[in-house]
Known about the structure:
Elements: E1 7-12, E2 17-22, E3 25-30, H1 36-44, E4 47-52, E5 55-62, E6 70-77, E7 80-87, H2 94-121, H3 143-152, E8 157-161, H4 168-180, E9 187-192, H5 200-212, H6 220-229, H7 236-252, E10 257-262, H8 270-281, E11 287-293, H9 302-308, E12 311-315, H10 316-319, H11 323-333, H12 340-350, H13 354-363
Parallel strand pairs: 1-4, 8-11, 8-12, 9-10, 10-11
Antiparallel strand pairs: 1-2, 2-3, 4-5, 5-6, 6-7
Helix pairs in contact: 3-4, 5-6, 6-7, 7-8, 11-13
Amino acid sequence: MPKSPAHLLRWSEENQIYELTSYGHMEQRFGLEGGPSWLGFLDRHTSFTFQGREGRLSLMRETRPRGTGYWYAYRVSDLHTHKQYLGKTGNVTIARLEEAASALSRTARDAQITRMDEQSASGSLLLSKLQPPRLPSAPVERPRLLQRLDAALERKLTLLVAPAGSGKTTIVNQWIHERWSGGLPKSLAWVALDGGDNDLLRFWRSIIAAFQAFQPSLGQTALAHFATALQPPFASFALETTLTSLINDLTRLTQGGLLILDDYHAIENSHIHESLTFFLDHLPATWSVLLMTRAEPLSLPLLRWRARGDLYELYGSELCFSPEETATFVRQSFPIPLSAAVLKQLDASLQGWIAGLLVCACWL
């Protein structure tokens, strides 16, 4: 839950006046011109948050070597910061804040449209991100893990947490090939994430594109509304309304399915975590989501989902090869045979660490 700003000046539609709160407690009320009390507040503080009729701003007074300081307005939209100079304290009326909020809203909206146009012109999405990677030619059979993953379909969310090189993607890919090729009555959507997916629009467009691989019309209404929902001033309820359309499309499908998000640790945008939380909370019972990540996504409400029985978890220690699986891997991957004693020593040293075994195979 994000912290409330220390000092917040907000427009009250109910009282038709601007209300100043400090640490959540009401302090003063102002009209558009502010007056001496408003100037006194500005003199005593160097930052505050403004939520007006034209949008939301962060205000900071930057001190210069000469002079008492100058105020700037900031607006952040999808990890992009927009800035406007306001001047000295005497120039910072509440009416001036509304003008700045309106101007920065337009700037952020124009920048968002430009980014959308650039994405559209460049083909938008890398289609290979929407497909599982190539499976090794002779993967080690791991029935115990495949059975664990089978159980994942009974929960709303499965969390597969393991460090790099532990075989997360490989075992899930192997599970997909064995279970889905066998006629499992489930639709499958795969998205491989990276740092570029921290853009809220790109994140959800990728997910909808993955859904459309098996149902071309799915999510079209939501996709058409995302651009508007994400325009400044950003409001969570607008995004939730758009996601509701996507969730309703999934609910109407005659069969359920699974959405797999690989490398979720690459996602740092708090708006994406919040939107995914809403999506998971309202996901129909016929659908499941599997997150593969190097670390627990602490920005998601894992405790709540655990308490409700909605969460299934697998961790790195469970992905390690057993001694028998290590022996199988060595036979299949090493260019020379190893004696039983060397194999035993290798297993004791690496303790089933798959990446370590791959490195050893390359050195021999």
